[in-house]
């Protein structure tokens, strides 16, 4: 259904906006930044709004997999060389990271100063992806070829052209409820399951625009302010498709405008759906 769906702005809560801007600028390479007293908007080199950082000095930093909410945002690099260059830069700055080869993609995992999870990854060509007999995509977690990536790394010069928001991964309360909401209301497809612990969904056959897992100890949202993700955005680049989804989501809409609406999923995450026809 979604041949041209893309992910847009993610709103993150941080405890110190200036400290966070320094990290996203110096470590990840954002240079197009609109900074106000308690908020920073961060754009790709092509001018697409990818991140909004909102300061809340009272928010608690992320203690790990404790509550429902953000697991990680995922920034998609245009190719292996740009990811290798980024990894080289992270090593130069002694940034703690993990890494994995997921067969469909290669990724490293880091955290911002507040513990918000960030995946930096590049895709393998779709022609190299494999599928089970039941149509589910084959994904795995294998050691990352860091040596190979570093061998093709260039000199780091900030964010590469073509960087986008690739996917969103959240801790959720219940996988069945999430699957029903994203499938029946938002019209996304299941791409694969990881046992009964995780679920991956997407539009137009992508390996996943959304990851969901039940790995947290508390299957609830924290009652006090925490850092993490407040909202993320889905761009639907077809007016007819947008109107169909808005009609299906009608009872779940919590706010709306002429070309956008906001819904809340079963794990209380806010999602803004925008028409970009």
From TrEMBL:
One of its GO terms (molecular function) is dioxygenase activity. The keyword Membrane does not apply. The keyword Oxidoreductase applies. Keywords: Dioxygenase, Oxidoreductase. PROSITE patterns: VOC. InterPro entries: Glyas_Bleomycin-R_OHBP_Dase, Glyas_Fos-R_dOase_dom, VOC_core. This is Glyoxalase/bleomycin resistance protein/dioxygenase. It comes from Shouchella lehensis G1.
